[in-house]
Amino acid sequence: MSADWKQRPEGGGRFAIWLIRGIARHGGRSIARAFLYPITLYFLLVRGPERRASRTYLTRVLGRRAGLWSVARHIHTFAATILDRVFLLGGRFNGFDVRITGLPELHEVLDRRQGALLFGSHLGSFEVMRVLAQRRPDYKIRVVLDRAHNPAMTQLLDALNPEIAAGVIDAGQDGPSIAMAIKQATDEGALVALLVDRARPGEPALNAQFLGREAPFPTAPWLIASALKVPVVLAFGLYLDGHRYHLAFESFSDSIAVPRQQRAQAVLSLIQRYASRLEHHARAAPYNWFNFYDFWGNEDEGSTPFTAGAPRIVAIDHADADAAVQRRVAVRRGP
């Protein structure tokens, strides 16, 4: 990609995040929401790269030239979901109207007590899935999170819900360590939630069609799912407006298989299926897209465009990666 999203400063910084936390906790959600307008104005005026990325995305998803008002609405939606984290992570669900679809299918998967992978994205709010803990407190949910890239959010999570924070699987580890931690969690019957729409710099990725152009998606989640042979469920926590959310679960596969002989084609097929569902929900709730960087790559700025044709594998060989996971899984299981 033309821009390294990991190099962008964390939105708002520690001071802004803790300020809004204090206002939300002591003044309530209604008062805190009034502060979203100056926050939106700040990002609109000061954060040029994010503003341009928003306009590019909105132009694609809306099918028309996105104006400044649309960009402002996009940023305001993002700020609203950040504010709601304070309440959702703290278990304060009163006042939220969350419509859930696909819950029976998710219950069916988890009731097998074999563990599962919950694939989410930077579309909407991942934290709204905490309502599951209210509906089914017997579920154990583990979240994969890059602690180093989100220090303010990590500290906020530690303060609001130490139990969730203690169960976080650090995505900043090396690949095999992450895979082993995920396997251990699923062996314990946990639902492991991770975001699979953003490729880390240098991470293996394949290009899939998304909103009319090819974009890179990470391959590691699909290789891990193939190695662990656990069900995969897609999740989209879409912010609608005010206090309303739509939490959608979709069963993706009971067990993913990636043949070694057609590895790239099989993984690409899985990623394309996922990208198609991501596009469906992005078009349904266009202002919920929170990847504020050049997701596709910009040829005009001198970056290398993603070309159509055979899938391109980046950084490492998938066979080696999958073999490493399989070896570690075998060691974990014993002789």
UniProtKB/TrEMBL annotation:
UniProt key word Transmembrane helix: no
Residue ranges crossing the lipid bilayer per the database entry: none
Keywords: Acyltransferase, Cell inner membrane, Cell membrane, Membrane, Transferase
Keyword field contains Ribosomal protein: no
InterPro entries: Ac_Trasf (IPR014548), LipA_acyltrans (IPR004960)
Main location, first listed in the record: membrane
Cell compartment(s), UniProt: Cell inner membrane
Molecular functions per Gene Ontology: acyltransferase activity
CDD domains per record: LPLAT_LABLAT-like (cd07984)
Origin superkingdom: Bacteria
Annotated protein name in UniProt: LPLAT superfamily acyltransferase
Organism this protein belongs to: Pseudoxanthomonas sacheonensis
Lineage per the UniProt record: Bacteria, Pseudomonadati, Pseudomonadota, Gammaproteobacteria, Lysobacterales
